């Protein structure tokens, strides 16, 4: 998937075809403002004000506690971005807004949109990172309040592709033990345990992550089968021949190549014979000429905010092979552009 400037109407299409349109303005000046205005509409509750039906700008402002005229201007932007419709003086939610941005929607990204206020500040360090090569180490910078929003934001993303993750993750027949490394909110484990009735999961993550993820997991009412374990995976003993399956999601981008290779060997020892390990991540192509803009954006972002970046399928296969595992075919997700899963089994 690419983020691109799209023309509206014949004149703009011709202008772009002839190279007359200053597209960098669209990629920066317009994109920056649109992103922030979507965030503001979410934070101010403008979408929530329309959950029960169409309203005028004055009615929306009254419900959200905002200024009527300023609200109407922001609502107009949301119409042009197709997050709202406008008909006979009343605004209404589009299908995508109702699905993705309402707080209580099944696949809501509401909390992730709010977490982007924190990310907005983080990316201000981009220039300094490029100058010095020193990352921000975001996990050490987060306040307790930000940790809570971080966990809720990650849970929101997991809700969008959990079904596909479950479909793509190999779980051996009769499996009873699953280790979810860095799983915090535990939603992937919950989804897998719901599919496999005999499965029980341990979610291993940092203590500060678990502190704020525990209430999220408790809402799933799966406490008898999905439980947290506090610890740093780089220091915690994973055991030997303990688990039928291991998933490691959105974590290897924090570690360098040698660390990931060593971790995969420890995971290999922790697996039972016939067990499987699955890495779920944004997947970088070997070169930017091959495309994959989202993953290359995340490659830089992860390097800025942590210590490493996005890895390729070939990198993951190399770690798995060196650990004595048998890699399975690489798979890219349809529901989360730029991401995929690389699984392997233990003989």
Account of the protein in words:
With 347 residues, the protein is α/β, with parallel strands linked by helices. It folds into 2 domains: 99 residues, Orthogonal Bundle (Arc Repressor Mutant, subunit A); 223 residues, Rossmann fold (3-Layer(aba) Sandwich). 47% of the residues lie in helices and 16% in strands. The protein starts with 9 loop residues before the first helix and ends with a strand. The model has no long low-confidence stretch (mean pLDDT 94).
CATH first level of the largest domain: which class?
Alpha Beta
Structural category: alpha/beta
Helix tally equals 14
Q: Radius of gyration, Cα only, in angstroms? A: 22 Å
Average pLDDT reading: 94
Which structural traits does this protein have?
single chain, 347 residues, alpha/beta, Rossmann fold, 2 domains, 8-stranded mixed sheet, two-stranded antiparallel ribbon, 14 helices, 10 strands, 47% helix
Question: How are the secondary structure elements laid out?
Answer:
Layout: H1 10-17, H2 23-43, H3 57-64, H4 68-80, E1 84-87, E2 90-93, H5 95-100, H6 110-122, H7 126-132, H8 138-141, H9 144-168, E3 177-181, H10 187-195, E4 200-205, H11 207-218, E5 226-230, E6 243-249, H12 257-270, E7 271-282, H13 293-305, H14 313-322, E8 325-327, E9 331-332, E10 339-346
Parallel strand pairs: 3-4, 3-6, 4-5, 6-7
Antiparallel strand pairs: 1-2, 7-10, 8-10, 9-10
Helix pairs in contact: 2-4, 2-6, 3-4, 6-9, 9-10, 9-11, 12-14
Concise summary:
Strands 3, 4, 5, 6, 7, 8, 9 and 10 form an 8-stranded mixed β-sheet that branches. Strands 1-2 form a two-stranded antiparallel ribbon. The chain is of the alpha/beta class and 347 residues long. A hairpin with a 2-residue loop joins strand 1 (84-87) and strand 2 (90-93).
């Amino acid at each position: 998937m690419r983020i691109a400037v799209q023309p509206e109407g014949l004149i703009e299409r011709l202008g772009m075809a002839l190279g007359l349109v200053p597209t960098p303005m669209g990629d920066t000046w317009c994109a920056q403002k649109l992103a922030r205005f979507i965030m503001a509409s979410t934070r101010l509750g403008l979408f929530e004000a329309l959950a029960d039906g169409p309203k005028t700008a004055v009615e929306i402002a009254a419900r959200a506690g905002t200024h009527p005229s300023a609200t109407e201007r922001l609502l107009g932007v949301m119409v042009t971005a197709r997050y709202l419709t406008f008909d006979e003086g009343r605004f209404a939610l589009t299908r995508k807004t109702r699905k993705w941005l309402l707080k209580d929607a099944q696949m809501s990204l509401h909390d992730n949109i709010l977490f982007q206020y924190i990310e907005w500040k983080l990316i201000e360090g981009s220039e300094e990172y490029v100058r010095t090569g020193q990352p921000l180490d975001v996990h050490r910078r987060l306040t307790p309040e930000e940790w809570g929003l971080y966990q809720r934001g990650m849970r929101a993303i997991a809700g969008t592709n959990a079904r596909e993750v479950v479909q793509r993750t190999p779980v051996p027949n009769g499996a009873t033990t699953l280790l979810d490394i860095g799983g915090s909110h535990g939603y992937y484990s919950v989804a897998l345990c719901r599919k496999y009735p005999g499965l029980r999961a341990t979610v291993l993550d940092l203590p500060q992550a678990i502190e704020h993820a525990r209430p999220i997991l408790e809402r799933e009412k799966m406490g008898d089968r999905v439980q947290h374990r506090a610890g740093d995976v780089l220091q915690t003993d994973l055991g030997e021949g303990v688990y039928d399956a291991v998933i490691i999601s959105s974590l290897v981008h924090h570690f360098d190549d040698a660390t990931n290779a060593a971790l995969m060997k420890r995971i290999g020892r922790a697996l039972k014979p016939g067990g499987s390990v699955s890495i779920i991540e944004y997947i970088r192509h070997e070169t930017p000429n091959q495309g994959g803009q989202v993953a290359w954006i995340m490659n830089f972002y992860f390097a800025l905010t942590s210590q490493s970046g996005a890895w390729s399928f070939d990198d993951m296969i190399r770690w798995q092979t060196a650990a004595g595992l048998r890699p399975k075919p690489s798979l890219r997700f349809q529901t989360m552009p730029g991401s995929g899963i690389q699984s392997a089994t233990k003989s």
